[in-house]
Amino acid sequence: TKQAQLMEVLKKEVRAMLIAAKAGLTPEQLEEQYMAMVCKPLPLHSLGFQSTLELVTQMPEVVRISSSKNGTLILKAIADDSTKGIAKLVANQKVKPRKASKKTATKANATFPAKNSKNPQSFQTLSARTPVLPGAVKAELQDLLSSSPLLLADLDKAFLRRFGHAFQYRQYGFLSVFEVLRSMSDSVVIEQTKAGSLLVLRKYLASHIEQEEVPQASAAELPPLEPICETESFYQAALPMDLEPVQTQAIDLGGHLKQNQGFEQFPPTPEIPPDAVQNRSLCSLPPLKKKCLVGVIVEFVVSPSQFYIHICSTEASYKLQDLMFEMRHVYSHKVASDKYIMPESAVRPGQLCCVMVSKWWYRVIIHRVINDREVEVFYVDYGHLQIVQKSWLRFLKWHYLKLPAQAIPCSLAWVKPVEGTWSSAAILLFKHLCRFKELVGIVDEYVNGVLYLFLCDTSTKQDVYFHSVLRDMGYAHVCGENNPSQEFEELNPSALYVQPSGKQGNAEVVEPDLHLQQESRDADSETATLKLDGAEL
């Protein structure tokens, strides 16, 4: 029968994958390996199985199931006559111990060699990095699992039903769902059950979410988000990397704004809560040390001379996610939401507040008032400007001032556009280079509050330096110095509205707790050369 033929082929494939894995594979790792090799999931349903564990139990002549010390199930191959030789070679392979390199950036700070050294311009090559799931997408997955565990087989349908768009993990650089889940192992656990792989949110996060049940807000309570840039994707709506820059300018408000009777009326607000933020500013993150290496994610791009980054650190990621969860729980209740409605007199440029986008709440600063119904706001944690409804705004609670603004304004170091301004092709290429990847940034200097840094993609076999790509494509000159960004000189919302960390009594230069401790795969490849227009840095 077709099922029997499929089973025989599958046994050979499973045996081949398990033989190659000296230490064996977990059931989820086997699923991931199969997906990577065959480009489709294990044919569980076609063979009448509910889970990978149930499948391998029907292969006693192929798979040996054991348990590790921590209780994890491990699958190992049982070699047959045709594969005994290969199994013996794999068993005799020696595992190279990883040598701790003195040049490993254990604190994300690589000190450059002295000028009189034999190779004065070299610095270490960081090992290839795994893809990175945007924080907003992580929050969606965590929210999806917050109510109850979910079978892996139901993930796609549940995600689509909950958020109105598919879970397109491949666009972030992941080859399989298991790669995604492995990147979230700190918050999501995969348990093997008879029904299949079960996704469970870790208890610390689940308990945090369950402290207060989130009601489903009706359209009357909170206005729904209108489609932004013709996409339903929450990430694209909230963090639009591909949007053209919004043309903005400061305006003089003059007298008080009048509210027409035909427009939506704001609910009456008897008094402003004592913990509502007024006349206060967020502070920025402390400055980074010159020449240090930092893990970064580019959140929003206008051009190579104007973009915003997030620093990659577990602590910072948790704090921002926790803030998003807490704000959602607080402001999603109608009583609390109505309490923090902003009166017309408070809706003015420079006012720090929060706004709802796709049922999530973000810290923003009002940049300008468009009309009686709309304002343009600056997302302090992501870096972009967006026009939103006034009725979506709420006062920010005082407690949410503690976390510094997470978006850092940046320019690519040592480059200037060939044509005087960046061409559309150059901007598109730069966006493509930055998209959904964790990159390595080499800090050069700060100019007028803007961080100038080199960007490097270490996820490929050879490190890719963005300034070199722009130069080689004929879009940029490498000039060996930093020219002030024309775009940021015209408009830099961070400089307008966010206080430097020094102004808050915290001016010390710090080294962030970043994940740059990975060692190079090849112990002999410890340094690399950053070439700048024929010269070396």
From TrEMBL:
Q: What is this protein called?
A: Tudor domain-containing protein 5
- Keywords for this entry? Cytoplasm, Developmental protein, Differentiation, Repeat, Spermatogenesis
Q: Which GO terms describe its biological process?
A: cell differentiation; spermatogenesis
Task: Identify one Pfam family in the record.
Answer: OST-HTH
Any single Gene Ontology cellular-component annotation? cytoplasm
Biased composition annotated in UniProt, kind: Basic and acidic residues: 515-524
Stretches for region Disordered? 515-537
Which residue numbers delimit the HTH OST-type domain?
A: 6-79, 129-204
Coarse class of the protein's main subcellular location: cytoplasm
Task: Spell out the subcellular localization from the entry.
Answer: Cytoplasm
Record-linked InterPro entries: LOTUS-like, OST-HTH/LOTUS_dom, SNase_OB-fold_sf, Tudor, Tudor_domain_containing
